Amino acid sequence: MAKKVLMAMSGGIDSTVAALLLLEQGYELTGVTFRTFDNISQGCLEKEKGCCNIDSLLEAKHMAQTLGFEHHIVDFRKEFEDTVIRDFIHEYLQGRTPNPCVVCNATIKWGKLMEIADQMGCEFIATGHYARVAESNGRYFLRKGADTQKDQSYFLWRLTQANLARTLFPLGEWTKAEVRQFALSRGYEKLSRKGESQEICFIPDNDYRAFLASHAPDYASKCQPGNFATADGKIVGKHRGYPNYTIGQRKGLGIALGQPMFVTAIHPETNTVVLGTKEEIQDSTFYAHNLNWMKYASIPQGFEAIAKIRYRNEGGTASLYPENEKLRVSFHHPVNSITPGQSVVFYEGDAVIGGGIIDQIIK
């Protein structure tokens, strides 16, 4: 009997090719697409934008029907609002910079996929992510996707052992170019040329400041003009409200101090944004919290790994020191713009050891 798989479909090329591959491998598929957010452009006359729009939902359903398996559109807008968007707003108003895709993958995509899979009697769940699942010594862990330019393991570090044990990544060994060629070879010429969104799905114009202004209930009181200051406390100008800034930001500061200046710290309690030179945005040590370990159940003091603090960051060698519920991370060489609220993910070769949320920079 064919093994049943719940296939998460976005209407895009990656999830569609993933579905094609699983069908050719003999799996029995049921498709599901999430409705997570309404984002109607001004006047409600133009089409919705972003990756979760009505067109994408209908494309996913049409593709599932074309491939011959049932498909369900599931409305998770309330759950998405209560978790991903609430966290996004809360973090910015705390002076941190969140990563909503990490939260969504853990709470909505896998959290809800597992529930639906159980309801539908599906043994596995599958997505079009570029990543791989491996097992060693009784533990499941992620490996980077074979396409290093598309690898998405950074966004998936919060997946649990239970999640990984039931997850299939059909594109893990493929490159994007191979995926496009495969779609073309199966007669899906239009799909093979389809682009992809690089935006946060609920902020299709990439203007997070406008989103906060319209969605954060206490934004007007939080986002008041305040002081730009240097690390020694010297006031050097006025800013437009601390939620408008992120660590490492250089452009859009609206201030000229004779040399390039960067945001080095944000203090919501005093509405102060600290500026510094390029050298002053370099740090070596920070604490991480909300940890999730994959390859190993725990690590010893001083464990060395490659730590990535941003998706497009190559990562650097760091020593890891567990301290109660937190982890002290010490890079061997200073790195730019360690940003509280962002994810740090630890690698051993192409294997994900685990990850956490950047908490406090240690000066």
Your description of this structure?
Its main location: cytoplasm. One of its GO terms (cellular component) is cytoplasm. Catalyzes the 2-thiolation of uridine at the wobble position (U34) of tRNA, leading to the formation of s(2)U34. This is tRNA-specific 2-thiouridylase MnmA. It is found in: Cytoplasm. β14 and β15 form a beta hairpin. The longest helix has 21 residues. α3 packs antiparallel against α4. The protein has 363 residues and is α/β, with parallel strands linked by helices. About 3% of the residues have low confidence. Helices cover 26% and strands 30% of the residues. The protein is globular. The chain has a six-stranded antiparallel β-barrel.
Summarize the SSE layout with pairings.
Blueprint: E1 4-8, H1 13-24, E2 28-35, H2 54-67, E3 71-75, H3 77-93, H4 100-120, E4 124-126, E5 131-136, E6 139-144, H5 161-165, E7 167-168, H6 176-185, H7 189-192, H8 208-215, H9 219-222, E8 226-229, E9 235-239, E10 262-267, E11 272-276, E12 282-293, E13 303-308, E14 316-323, E15 326-336, E16 343-348, E17 351-362
Parallel strand pairs: 1-2, 1-4, 2-3, 4-7, 8-11
Antiparallel strand pairs: 5-6, 8-9, 10-11, 12-15, 12-17, 13-14, 13-16, 14-15, 16-17
Helix pairs in contact: 3-4
